Amino acid sequence: MSSDQPDALPTPVADEAPHPAPAAAPPGLDHDPSSVETIVHVLRHGEVHNPNGILYGRLPGFSLSVTGRSQAAAVARSLSDHDISLVIASPLQRAQETAAPIAAAHDLIVRTDENLVEAGNTFEGLRVSVGDGALRKPRHWWKLRDPFTPSWGEPYLQIAHRMLAAVNKARVEAAGHEVVLVSHQLPVWTLRRFLQGQRLWHDPRNRQCSLASLTSLVYHGDTLVDIVYSEPAGASDPSVHGA
């Protein structure tokens, strides 16, 4: 990827704070539509049962661990008094299971959006831990030749565009209310960097995107005015692939 930045929506750097207060009810028709506040909470799924420590990517059959289910319940409690009108999740099992208690708390059905799916990765199904994983094997080194696109998986810009498409679709439908979109660490972090006008390639160890964390996008009309990061289920190590 070149050093030129993709077009991005102007927005302040994200605050690390409790997630935004519940959105106000939509104003009457005599109000300026640009004053309508809509909040899109982009939620990373909870911890996954992954005893073999593999990079599972889009593989089926990976469910939440006991801890992950507790994390999902904690997020549901934290959003219980919010005006949630939609809950939409990645099609992968861990995202659907994270979304379920939130939807139940608001008498909603979890909907699915393929644009929220995990990033594609050529190391899917392999162990990639430092010292004992696939990265020690020379046959895999060619995959690492370009960290900027990256060469080992779905392009960052493609991830950003599909995530933003999911956000915009939900935002329009839920105008004046709040919506929860359940996705995965790399897609959530890539979306945030895109919206903040930052380069998309980055050090994964520095991601601010804990398990079951919320990256809340606050819109006034069609304008993104704030990004608020919160951890209703507590912090976790972004470099751990239990995720």
Strand and helix order = EEHEHEHEHEE
Q: Can you list the strand order of the major beta sheet?
A: 1-7-6-2-5-3-4
- Second CATH tier, the architecture: 3-Layer(aba) Sandwich
CATH topology: Rossmann fold
Low-pLDDT stretches: 1-13
Number of domains: 1
Large-scale geometry: globular
Rg on CA atoms, Å: 18 Å
End-to-end gap = 26 Å
- What is the tally of beta strands? 7
Given the helix and strand composition, which structural class is it? alpha/beta
Précis, in short:
The protein has 243 residues and is an alpha/beta fold. It has helices spanning 66-78, 93-105, 156-173, 185-195; strands at 15-16, 37-44, 84-89, 111-112, 178-183, 214-220, 223-230. A seven-stranded mixed β-sheet has the order 1-7-6-2-5-3-4, with helices on both faces.
What does this structure look like?
Pfam families: His_Phos_1 (PF00300). Residues 1-34 are annotated as: Disordered. GO terms for molecular function: phosphatase activity. The protein has 243 residues and is α/β, with parallel strands linked by helices. It has a single domain (15-230), classed as Phosphoglycerate mutase-like (Rossmann fold), CATH 3.40.50.1240. It has four helices and seven strands; from the N terminus they run E-E-H-E-H-E-H-E-H-E-E. It has helices at 66-78, 93-105, 156-173, 185-195, and strands spanning 15-16, 37-44, 84-89, 111-112, 178-183, 214-220, 223-230. The protein has a seven-stranded mixed beta sheet, with helices on both faces. Mean pLDDT is 81; it is low at 1-13.
